[in-house]
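Researcher: Go.
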Amino acid sequence: MKYSFMKKHEQLFSIERMSRILKVSRSGYYRFKAALPSNRSLENQRLLEEIKSIYNASRQVYGSPRIHAQLRMEGKQCSRKRVARLMKIAGLEAKTKRRFKVKTTTGNLLFKKAPNLLEQCFTAQKPNQRWVADITYVATAQGWLYVAAILDLFSRRIVGLAMNERMTTELVTRALEQALKHRKPDEGLIHHSDKGSQYTSYAFQNTLSKNQITCSMSGVGNCYDNAAMESFFHTLKTELVYFESYKTREQAKQSIFEYVEVFYNQKRIHSTLGYLSPVMFEKKWNQQKCLSS
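Model: Structure:
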């Protein structure tokens, strides 16, 4: 108690005088003072609490670069190295990633020579200019759940999502129709996929044609031609699926839908988007467009 008083008033009174009045030793005070945490230590403790909050809010998938970017957006001034060091001390690290191998299939010969209009250029100048699509599969105790998704290359937003126990043309068509309903793209949209039988089917190609969508397709067996879509599936699996044990397909559906619509599109920040989420990136683009018009 006496040492605390001395620490609080040492700028006003000399240590020697306070020691004499309070009848304590100066050496004892200096030992007390040395044992106190430094201002830097206290700042690190406060910063670590903020880091933990962001880390948990990200479902433990953010590493130090994204957490640092989030702190900066919240007005906190600190270096990325400091964030990385505190996370290492606290044992905080992004969820372990596992290698994900994509399965590709060959479809109908009629569309075998559909051109690759992207040529591995996975950018767009505005929303609804270039969409990429693919199918992946998720294990459940009831069997496989097939997930068809469509991603807008402009914002990396998932604009179409459909899931079923069978990998059919109807599955990918539902994902496309969902995207068309919510996005209402103008004429000139490019839809890129692999040459899987679902995408080269007459029914799916007719849906593209009816909506004046230009078809683009990867080379057979070349996963790099659709790398942006595969990157999303890799993220989905390494941040969510590999840490779950789904008993039913319905449980998997709800989990994946919640991850995509609540977290990935709305909250998960992307380095390629300047550390904004897809929804935030589109909102910022629309605001700038309104100001310039």
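Model: The longest strand covers residues 130-140.
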